[in-house]
Amino acid sequence: MSQRILVINPNSLQAVTDHISLAMEKLRLADGPAIDCICLPGGPPGIESQAHIESVVQPLRDLIIERTPDTDAFIIACYSDPGLAAAREATKQPVFGIAESGMLVALTRGERFGVISILATSIGRHVRYVRALGLFERFAGDRAIGLGVAELSDEDKVLARMIETGKTLRDTDGADVLVMGCGGMARYRDRLQDAVGIPVVEPTQAAVTLALGAVRLGQY
User: Fold this and answer.
1) Which one is the CATH code of 100-201: 3.40.50.12500, 3.40.50.300, 1.50.10.20, 3.90.550.10?
2) What is the pLDDT of residues 69-115, one digit of tens each?
3) Would you kindly state where each structural domain of the chain is located, as residue ranges?
4) Nearest 10 degrees: CA dihedral of 23, 29, 33, 37?
């Protein structure tokens, strides 16, 4: 029986989902699980507020319950990890949030991690989550590029701001590894890492890598 990892983008922007899917290509192995990437039907155009997060929790849970019979692991591809606890209660399959996964993988690459967010309004939520996970002592900081999810298609502008922000996290805040704080940033990882000269973790890739191990080892 074929195995499947389902990556769910909780917003409704197909372009973001397409870029996430493209970032999964290196993880699509000939003998490995299929990696499917989908939008959440009816989701907001971006997850940019607490209201957006709360609005997708129940639909995410319902979708995961519906897809449990044909899925071996789930990824919630939003850096706020909306509905992660509810999803884990709803299925016997492993569920990975990209924020939790990205931060945990970053700790294997450096001593202190910094997060590049899209909007300043996201930073408070992210910092609360870092504290809840018990990772604050290894946290260098979180800085925003000041662009919303829908604006991430302007590649030159986005990359320039990400490089500037990454260098500030490195030089001012003391980060020696960076985490990209939005699933829509996936296509910039290699160029950002080359520019800042320290490891950069793309959190959806991190989550899918963890899911691949769980599925191949039967850890569910």
Assistant:
1) 3.40.50.12500
2) 999 999 999 998 999 999 999 999 999 999 999 999 999 999 999 99
3) 4-98+204-216, 100-201
4) 20
CB 39 within 8 A of CB 12: yes
Q: Count Cβ atoms within 10 A of the Cβ of residue 1 and give its class: 0-12 exposed, 13-18 middle, 19 or more buried.
A: exposed
For domain 4-98+204-216, the CATH class is: alpha beta
The sign of the CA dihedral 145, 136, 203, 64 is negative
**How far apart (Å, rounded) are the C-alpha atoms in residues 107 and 80?**
18
Instruction: State the SS3 of 115-142.
Output: EEECCHHHHHHHHHHHHHCCCHHHEEEE
Cβ neighbourhood burial of 168 (10 Å; 0-12, 13-18, 19+)? middle
Question: How many C-beta neighbours within 10 Å does residue 142 have?
Answer: 24
pTM: 0.93
Name residue, tokens 């940019």.
Answer: 48
Handedness of CA 178, 87, 60, 29 (dihedral sign): positive
Provide the 10 A C-beta neighbour count for residue 141.
16
